Amino acid sequence: MKTDFWYRFSKNRLAVAGSAIVVLLFFVSLLAPWIAPFDPTAIDLKNILQPPSATHWFGTDQLGRDVMSRMIWGAQISLKVGFVSTGIAIFIGAILGSVAGYYGRWVDAVIMRFVDIMLCFPTFFLILAVIAFLEPSIWNIMIIIGVTGWMGITRLVRADFISLKERDFVQAARVIGASDARIIFIHVLPNCMASVLVAATLGVAGAILTESALSFLGIGVQPPTPSWGNILTAGKDNIDIAWWLSLYPGLAILVTVLGYNMLGEGIRDSLDPRLRS
Amino acid sequence: MIRYVARRFLFMIPLFFGITIICFSVMHLAPGSPTDLQTEMNPRVTAEMKERLRAMYDLDKPLHVQYGKWLGRLLVLDLGVSFSPDGRPVSAKILERLPITVFLNMLSMVLIFLIAIPIGVLSAVRQGSTFDRVMSVVVFVGFAIPTFWLALLLMILFGLHLDWLPISGIRSLNYEYLPPAAAFWDFLQHLILPVSIAAFGGLAGLSRYMRSNMLEVIRQDYITTARAKGLPERIVIYKHALRNAMLPVITLLGLSVPGLIGGSVIFETIFSIPGMGQLFYMSVMARDYPVVMGILVIGAVLTLIGNLLADVSYALADPRIRIS
């Protein structure tokens, strides 16, 4: 089964291209202090809004900071937000989904109605409303994106639990006297990992998009901390004179999100070829 | 049918209460009290006046009493008074901006359906063709592209370099002096970029959904039957298959409401359109809590209504739903 997965994964062009992008970005953000040519916050008022050149590959911004260096550090921020917020969403989704699926009845009804209620809110509205009441710091952003994004995972895990809990291995665990918590977390939940992994990969992509939109609107990652979204804000402010501020960070977001989406789809196709759409 | 509608409606009531409870909890996330904003910058405010203000907003009462009073006012659409200097009722501020947002979203929804359905159907009918492959790449990019970035690029291209389209607002400055036809054309020109941007986000999802629906329907027995009795392929696809593949799309209409409304914050802010999304953004920035809460509730209720309408139209279109 495992070797099958890796065989299919390595033959899947989407998956390979996606993982190449993801791995590359991972290294870029890990090595940011060493590969960024300039200090991302170093202001140089003699060189403001310079177009791309040999020294500043992606040009400079309205304070003369090197855009490429800011983008390299921005990659770190994006990945951090993507992973932490998806982690939070999975944590909440896995617990609520397994409890709902395992216990069924009114527990299930209450949790699933809660999911329905959360799905009624335009996610972006909910995030913005919460931010209005809290300080827009990077940690708050991660928490808010996570706390508003667990509903899909809850549904997935619940569906898996409903089909798994009748299986023989669960009955066997019950017969030898395993506690509910043990059955849920040790026996059943690991079997849901396949669908959770796919959802998580796609979730990272979604979280990166949301963070960039929030930072673009000025309520996400706050300057001077660089993020792809807040470089684009500078791009909008200087839209008639500095196209490079608008072009490159957006391209970075596009490629990153594309990478995670391709990886997610690739994993899905390799896990179960029958699921191919 | 009436029983079905009634059941869906009853089902909405607990959801509505859930929505209000979540909104109410969000309101109490704020550190300190919402009245601080009005009082802390003013040195002449005494402790006693602060208490009076708190009493005015019922902040001195226990939470469940506050919730009850807030809910009571909500049901008669009394959303309180804005904190901004104009101090107008929140419901009036929202109502005057709601039509433009609803109009733009409806327009983009129509656009999404007009473009995405033919793309999905053609991709499915010619599965594996060049068209299908190109479209699946486009859809993939469509899922990943940040719409606000696309908006910036289109503004640079069509607004600044080519100078074809206006990039902000919904009317030109000289709007009032234009003859009706020119004024209408002016309005349309202002709509092109925002509506295309708003529609773009939904295109990828719907065309992909339509493609997989269509692929599934084509494999059904009744399609084989239709072909076997010698019907031309055109009739088989566009009459027998398409109608069945379109059915689940109705549900998607309802499901796409929250995404569209949420997206309006972004495109209304970028294009300076005076709609509900822009009001929401400005209120978030100004910490105008009553307006933020009001729009949050209204956004969720609109979604609820969208879902109800989708369920009802699905039942109208597909008898299997209302019987079971």
Question: Layout of SSEs?
Answer:
The complex is a heterodimer of chains A (277) and B (324).
Chain A: H1 2-11, H2 13-30, H3 32-35, H4 67-103, H5 105-120, H6 123-133, H7 138-147, H8 151-164, H9 168-175, H10 180-188, H11 193-216, H12 228-237, H13 243-271
Helix pairs in contact in A: 1-13, 2-4, 2-13, 4-5, 4-7, 4-8, 4-11, 8-11, 9-10, 11-12, 11-13, 12-13
Chain B: H1 2-27, H2 36-39, H3 47-56, H4 63-75, H5 90-125, H6 130-144, H7 147-161, H8 180-218, H9 221-228, H10 233-270, H11 276-286, H12 289-317, H13 319-323
Order of helices and strands of chain B: HHHHHHHHHHHHH
- As a percent range, the share of strand residues of chain B is under 5%
Q: Can you identify the CATH superfamily of the largest domain in chain B?
A: MetI-like
Strand content of chain A: under 5%
The outline of chain B comes out as globular
Low-confidence parts of chain A:
none
Instruction: Give me the count of strands of chain B.
Output: 0
Structurally, how many domains make up the residues of chain B? 2
Query: Quaternary state, please?
Result: heterodimer
Between the first and last Cα atoms of chain B, what is the distance in angstroms?
A: 11 Å
Count interface residues per chain for the largest interface: A-B, 45 and 53 residues
Structural write-up:
- The complex is a heterodimer of chains A (277) and B (324).
- Chain A is mostly helical and 277 residues long.
- In chain A, 72% of the residues lie in helices and 0% in strands.
- In chain A, helix 2 crosses helix 4, helix 4 runs parallel beside helix 8 and helix 8 runs antiparallel to helix 11.
- Chain B has 324 residues and is mostly helical.
- Chain B has 13 helices and no strands.
- In chain B, helix 7 crosses helix 8.
- The model of chain B has no long low-confidence stretch (mean pLDDT 80).
- Chains A and B meet through helix 5, helix 6, helix 11, helix 12 and helix 13 of A and helix 1, helix 6, helix 7, helix 10 and helix 11 of B.
